Amino acid sequence: MANGDFFDKRYGLDCLQNFVQTNLYNLLYTSTTKVSQTEQGSTPLLTNVEQSLAQAVTNGLLAPGMAR
């Protein structure tokens, strides 16, 4: 890449962004009701994103744990 990034890093981040967006879209599309703007409504959304990030860890794009 022209800015010094490695191609596999850029490609992996693009794939992760697509994966998160697609999974959230599918969750909202298949929802039979509106998603409320409460803790109860945001929990499935956060769980979905966490599952997407866990898949990125499995794929080797992200490292497990918390960043400091």
Kindly state the percentage of residues in helix: 55-70%
Shape: elongated
Give Rg in angstroms.
15 Å
Oligomer: single chain
The CA-CA distance between the termini, in Å, is 27 Å
Main β-sheet: number of strands, strand sense, barrel status?
none
Structural class: mainly alpha
Helix/strand order, N-terminal first: HH
Could you report the average pLDDT, rounded to the nearest whole number? 91
Find the count of extended strands (DSSP E, 2+ residues). Answer: 0
Uncertain ranges = none
Strand content: under 5%
In total, how many domains does the architecture comprise? 1
Helix count equals 2
Would you write up a description of this structure?
This protein has 68 residues and is mainly alpha-helical. The chain has one domain (7-59). Helix content is 66%, strand content 0%. The protein has helices spanning 7-30, 39-59. The protein is elongated and about 45 Å long. The model has no long low-confidence stretch (mean pLDDT 91).
Note the main attributes of this structure.
68 residues, mainly alpha, 66% helix, 0% strand, elongated
